[in-house]
Amino acid sequence: MKALRNWFNKQKPHLEKGGKFHMFKSGFGAIETFLFVPNHTTKQGTHIRDYVDLKRTMSIVIVALIPALLFGMYNVGYQHFIATGQELSFWPVFGFGFLKVLPIIIVSYVVGLGIEIAAAQMRGHEVNEGYLVTGMLIPMVLPVTTPLWMVAIAVAFSVVFAKEVFGGTGMNIWNPALVARAFLFFAYPSQMSGDSVWISLGDKAMIDGFSGATPLSQAAAAATKPIAEVAANHGISYSLMDMFLGFIPGSIGETSKLAILIGAAILLITRIGSWKIMLSTVLGGLFMGTILNVFAVNSYMAVPVWQHLIMGGFAFGVVFMVTDPVSGAQTNRGKWIYGFLIGVFGIMIRVVNPAYPEGIMLAILIMNMFAPLIDYYVVQGNIKRRLKRAIVKA
Amino acid sequence: MSKVIKLKKGLDIQIKGQPANILEHISRPETFAIKPADFHGLVPKLTVAVGDKVKAGTPLFFDKYHPEVQYVSPVSGEVTAINRGERRRILEVVVKAARENLSEEFLKADPQNLSSDVIKVELLKSGIWPAIKSRPFGIVAHPTDRPKAIFISCFDSSPLAPDFDFVFKDDANAWQTGINALSKLTTGKINLGLSDKKENSIFSQTKGVEFTSFNGPHPAGNVGIQIHAVSPLNKGEIVWTIQPQDVVMIGRLFLTGKYDSSRIIALSGSEVLEPKYFQFWRGGSLTGLLKGKLSKENVRIISGNVLTGTSVPANGYLGFYDAMVSVIPEGNYYEMFGWALPGFGKFSPSHTFFSWLGSKKNKYVLDANMHGEERAFVLSGEYEKVLPMDILPVYLIKAILANDIDAMEQLGIYEVIEEDLALCEYICTSKIMVQSVLRKGINSMIKELG
Known about the structure:
The complex is a heterodimer of chains A (394) and B (450).
Chain A: H1 2-15, H2 25-35, E1 36-37, H3 54-83, H4 90-123, H5 130-140, H6 148-163, H7 176-187, H8 189-192, H9 215-222, H10 240-245, H11 257-269, H12 275-294, H13 305-308, H14 314-321, H15 332-352, H16 360-393
Helix pairs in contact in A: 2-4, 3-4, 3-5, 3-11, 4-5, 4-6, 5-7, 6-7, 7-16, 11-14, 12-15, 15-16
Chain B: E1 3-6, E2 23-25, E3 31-34, E4 44-46, E5 53-54, E6 59-63, E7 70-72, E8 77-84, E9 90-97, H1 116-126, E10 133-135, E11 139-140, E12 149-153, H2 164-167, H3 172-183, E13 190-195, E14 210-215, H4 223-230, E15 239-241, H5 244-256, E16 262-268, E17 276-281, H6 287-290, E18 299-303, E19 310-312, E20 324-329, E21 335-336, H7 393-401, H8 405-410, H9 418-427, H10 434-449
Parallel strand pairs in B: 1-14, 2-17, 12-13, 12-15, 13-14, 16-20
Antiparallel strand pairs in B: 3-9, 4-6, 5-8, 6-7, 8-9, 10-11, 10-15, 16-17, 18-19, 18-20
């Protein structure tokens, strides 16, 4: 450890301006602060500083993502094995999923961090930690069959056009992980939706009678038929328990609501995720679901409101996407409005619009765009209170 | 008795080294210094040269733009050095104390029988005046202003702060005399902020003032927070603030006719072997005070508290406004994977370290390490948790960074000074320099308003 520290100290002069490795300064700095919390001390202002920093915060979000990721890997294998009619045993199932998911994660990090480090070096900045989370989120919202070159293009698009053009971490308007997904969704729709993309078959054939459709697409398909023809479960062939535990087709990280709840608990206990936003989004979703129930004209609209919470990516979006502090509303009052509207739009798009089986992604992107407007009115409210005070006094 | 205002937001930092209620007398320091940097925006004009003999209360320099505001020697002796920094800026005017402490003679009279003009002249002449600060902006008060009120916080809620009940227990007479003098300077009332957790033995007996009690964590004891809760400051209004130790000094001036800068200070912090109180003097050299009382060499010595104080060398001097000295580890070390360790012994209000499961009574050693590097604003809602004001601190800071004067005014820059936002800086995950950004904003406001 000491030897490593000394090695770093020895290299430092080469990285300063004029040194032979100056072009690697940002990347070198990123690795150094990853290994060692620097010896910087306070120079002005408060003499003591909280131990928390962005690295700590981001690494806790990653910890919160791990249950959903591990289950996602298992589920990739599970879906493969039942779709091809093989026998299930834990390690082969998990191993299959692991080997399918790991390359996607590696591509996401290599491409994303590469661009981030290059951008930081161009600006003479230090590398921000924001991509550590984004780089994990992107694989988790993709179907496992997404080709790796598409992952690379989507990551490059989102890091460059959703983040770096706005000034990097902390300045972006849209959630970069969702931009990556939306990019693929619109650029390569056939690889992003339909019934065949959710299950990795490998070189085996699907057994007869297996559909591979997600609960969302089943419910959407049933919506076109008259209510009387649809069975009591609204056309969904999966049990509620399977949908809660996650043994259903879907994007890699979104299927298990139990694993997502564990992640939510980690975010809430450490106070990194805003409980206000999570709660208000769920309330918004329940509110819209109830309205749809009341005016139900097809079987999709009649799906019980609470079942929406365990279908599709709603839960994953609520816990890991809506709570992104940069692209979301930043004032306390704004957070309530922001979350509530995401819930409303998420369920509305999902149920009413037949073109997009998953609504939460678009709902979050739309509200990302309106978050500054919501905050603007909250800030104006504060200003008006202050002005009013002066006028009443005078 | 008085109304109680409950403040929920804020934070009491669980830092080690609270002073014990023991008072120790030490011999008077050999040198004293007055530092122009203690006063925001001051351009000093020297009235003494090296070698001049001075008494306690003899002017050392005055304010170029307000020549009536003088800054005086805290002790009698000889000016031995005028230390200058970059561009010949004056850093310290050092006075070597004579064996016997003589004071200039000032008016000795009951302030209740004096007019406000006479009181003002006496305070200006004696050099006690700069202890009165003006809000907005927290600068030395202009003698020509008529403040709408004077606010005094009678408790210090900042980390390791002295207990005023203990410090002022023998000063009842001087305290009331000082209050009497101040009450002549405002058209409104003198407002005292009390803590509802303390006895307030001296303060609650004060005559001719309004009381408000406060309940809540730091920064409840900050006078800015109290002003905001009692009577928030609007554009164009002025209030004055002063600290209790300076009220007592004003009292002594009128009781004895002498400039007496002695005060009880707290020596606290985890690196002090026995944190306790000392009889000390404004501007005194810390050399004798600290000798043999620290546990190690590599320490940060702070004149003031750990949130807002000034870093001084071991042979530095007590600041003009300060009533405590804090000593904490310097913390200039590398920590391998420090951000990833579970952190049982690391106090953090953020709940991201396991220490939050520990007792609220645990005290921790906190050092001056940054614990990370500066980043862009990422998290939201952090600052609001520790600022008990109807102000949106992040928006105010961003307005200052954009140098948008209108927005700063609208977002409430008149109501805050650095100490009010110090906790925001402490908890900031992105390690933003909140206090220096705010001072920059205040400076551009002062410039803008002329």
